[in-house]
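Posting this for the archive.
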Amino acid sequence: MFLVEIILFLFSQYMLMLVVLSLLFVAFSLSSIPPSDFKYRISSEGITIEDHFFLWQELYDFYFKKREGVDVVHVRTHSFIPGELTLTLGSIDREHLKSALLHYLPYREVIKPTFMEKSGDWLAKNFPLEKEN
């Protein structure tokens, strides 16, 4: 970023320099603060995430993925927003959760990745934000 700032200074682009500095600040602040843990609850009526409740009629299907070494269940919704609920499994067994959700939602073995997922995976692979040990 320092090199970009020097180039912008040489071209007298002071406002753009402020934009680059503000983006750098946002990136630093987002990467330094860890995300908070959410409370999930799955009942016979639906899924509760913190204080928001989703009925089974609002949900479409579910599938499992592994993100950064953590098992995650994705529950897709009928509505465009939020579109998908992402719940980390933690210490819960995958098969136990699968058997509980199968009574209410269809299970998808394979989900074709979207263009955005492919693009995000490519960017994460080629331009990692964290150092690998």
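DSSP finds four helices and six strands in the chain. The first strand starts at residue 40 and ends at 42.
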